[in-house]
Amino acid sequence: MGKILPKEDLSAHKTITLEITPEELEKKKQEVAKIFQKSRKIPGFRPGRAPLKLVMTRYEREIEQEALDDLAYNKVMEEIEKNLYDYIPPVRLRYTKNDDGSYYVEAEFDVIPMFSFPDLSKVVVEKKVNRITRADVEEELESYRKSFGQFKEVDRPADEGDYVFAVYEEIDPATNKVIRKEENGYVRLEWGKTDQTLYEKLKGAKKGDVITVDRKLAVEGGEKLPFRQVFHVTSIRELELPELNDEFAKLLGFESLEEMKNSIEESLRKNAEKDSEDRFEWDLIEKIYDHIGFELPETLVQREKERLAKTLKLDVPPDQKESIVEDIAKHKVKEYIILRRFIDLNDIQVSDDEVIKHIEERLEDKSKLDQVVEKYRKENRFEELRRSLQFDKAYDMLKNLVKMEVLIE
């Protein structure tokens, strides 16, 4: 393992207090005023010809603020460079003017924490591996059958396994106004999977029945608003499934049912391996973080939350989504900081040849390699890919350094 810097500072939030003297401010104001003199239009004068004193009087507030911001920012950057802070924009500035014309400047910003890694051989991470059984294959086969099933209407009350088709309405009980309506929805009655209240209300229902369910919807702030679900039952149906045989398998592009089963088993195995690896990587980051315990930069957490809120699709209530997004955002920030520090401390490099090889392996038409590589370079995707491969290398190294315990489930 490469050189590891000593643990320096686990904090992610910095506050620096600086002073701007009247002399510094006056000199900077003169510089800013000359820029304003060239760029601002003043009635009665050709561009750049207005007297400097007039410019300073006319734009006094703007000139002073720009001078203050410029001086403060430069002083903060000097402090950041001197202290070797791994700085995360932006810098938030607060000014306090003194009686002598000087200013105190309080600058706040976030940084990537500085830390050393623990003895990773003593970090134990469990890797849970799901075995794929014949029952798993049969369950997947059953889902294929259901996707090709055909509904058959029955003249009897709804029972376990049936599909209750209905015109569905959501109603505001205070106004009796229909909030939402769905013409041809259905609910499958399946004990333990169907919502318990719906299951109990709809089991035994017949065509023509009107079933009402009163509920409360959790909204932001913890408030719960009442709403009513109304099901106008239009039919009770069974799902007739096709016979599971070679003919069915051929409909899906397989030579035989046995070949289909083998393909499903292989697909399930690959998915299980990926899920296992994803869980292992998540736990790996969390275990390392628990040993280090650095502060998370709120700037990065907030950016990640905003990104996830736009891209993450979750079929859960709003209050649950907020909590899930928070957890994932914090984990992604932990992952980024740990991998980035590990890359820097171990000087992990990815050559141009490695990036090009990665691109080539994913190209169907190898003859277009040079053209694609050039496109990657022009669009700055080449360097993005290099950074991604650096993170992959860091992950591989970390996995080999920790103590992995495999659990077969």
Provide an overview of this structure.
With 409 residues, this protein is of the alpha+beta class. It folds into 3 domains: 13-112, Trigger factor ribosome-binding domain (Alpha-Beta Plaits), CATH 3.30.70; 150-240, Transcription elongation factor, GreA/GreB, C-terminal domain (Chitinase A, domain 3); 255-408, Orthogonal Bundle (Trigger factor, domain 2). 48% of the residues lie in helices and 23% in strands. It contains 12 helices and 10 strands. The strands form 3 sheets. Strands 5, 6, 7, 8 and 9 form a 5-stranded antiparallel beta sheet that branches. Strands 1-3-2 form a 3-stranded antiparallel beta sheet. Strand 2 (86-97) and strand 3 (103-112) form a beta hairpin. The longest helix has 36 residues, at 257-292. The radius of gyration is 32 Å and the shape is extended. It starts with 12 loop residues before the first strand and ends with a strand. Mean pLDDT is 92; it is low at 1-6.
Number of domains: 3
Strand percent estimate:
15-25%
The number of strands is: 10
Give the % helix.
40-55%
* Annotation field: number of helices: 12
Largest sheet: 5 strands, antiparallel
CATH top level assignment of the largest domain? Mainly Alpha
| Strand/helix succession | EHHHEEEHEEEHEEHHHHHHHE
Query: What is the name of the CATH architecture of the largest domain?
Result: Orthogonal Bundle
Cα Rg: 32 Å
CATH topology of the largest domain: Trigger factor, domain 2
User: What is the structural class?
Assistant: alpha+beta
Low-confidence stretches: 1-6
